[in-house]
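re: ur question from earlier - yeah i can do the single chain one, its not a big deal. heres the input i used so u can compare w yours
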Amino acid sequence: MTSALLTAFLGLMVTGLPVALAMAVASLVYVLVSGNTPPFVVMHRMISGIDSFPLLAVPFFIMAGNLMNTAGITNRIYNFALALVGWMRGGLGHVNIVGSVIFAGMSGTAIADAAGLGTIEVKAMKDHGYSTEFAVGVTAASATLGPIIPPSLPFVIYGMFAGVSIGQLFLAGVIPGLVMAALMMVTVSYYARRRNFRRDAAFSWARLRKTSTEASLAILSPALLIGGMVGGLFTPTEGAVAATIWALFLGFAWYRTLTWRMLVKVSMETIETTVVVLFIVAAASIFGWLLTVTKVTDHVTEYVLAFTHDKAMFLLLANLLMLFVGCFLEPIAAITILVPVLLPAVKQLGVDPVHFGLVMVLNLMIGLLHPPMGMVLFVLARVARLSFERTTMAILPWLVPLLLSLALITYVPAISLWLPRLFY
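and the output i got, formated as tokens:
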């Protein structure tokens, strides 16, 4: 019966059914065939799966990111980043990364980063003579910072399923995000010297002061959010509400670039995205519950421990699995499936769940750059008007700094855990 559950799920996915529907239908079929559980339990478990206070953060973080994109705040972030690092060789490549670091502190998703800042950055780099492939590659790599630097929608989902503090997960992402950005900037510098890239803007204190003043409140958003959580002013869920209110204030009162018509459009987009995310979580709740009841998770743990008791080897195998899964599943769906399966082994081997959460999310973000299901690939192919094949080839060199970052974060836990242990 257990194999029937997994076979039904995989079979439905192969037919092209969305992963959430595949999980829900496979669970219902298992319950009906086994006869051990009343069918209404499926609906009950799905509803209870989304009846969670931390999940209230989902629509608010999505809306905050959408508001930042719609209100033109991305342009101000880009101009500030250009004034800050545009004078370096390969300047717009560095601007791309610094802009993503700042925007990551507001959007919480890689797709929002690629679609928002990516549209501006790819066009600007092409206009300054950079190849389309280089522009797409650096934009795709920097977009992975979105869910690593807090706030982060995947961290919220992982925290709920793993029973881990979302505040600790947010803090755990700060230093790894900066490490990733530094390695990407080193990569840009390497290509700048190798291809003799020029400096794209002369450094000017006046311009830096002007752009920093214009973007100051947007730049302060991540600091206010993290400071509020660490200082005990609000929980991560309440922080999501605060981020949305802050974005509304910037759009309506400070920059005055947001209209009521735009707000309605943003609200509808937020509702649409939230429904998709929560349906995935609801379907994963019943599927994960059945995996636990049928002792699939126990069998996986036993198999892993029979194969190795070495923490480093387990992390290597887990990374390979998550990189593979990330190529085929959207991150939220992958988290909801993988957490119940891998977390028991994580705890048995003494791996910190906060550290493992960061490793999992980074793996799945790298998966967004891979065919066949990498959403960042599709977004940037459309933005750059580049074929899917050429977009894929453009991104391949940028897997080097990303995989190096993954190795450092996986095997040097202090990079992730220093801040959470300091404040919690």
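Residues 176 and 308 are 27 Å apart (CA to CA). not sure if urs matches, ping me
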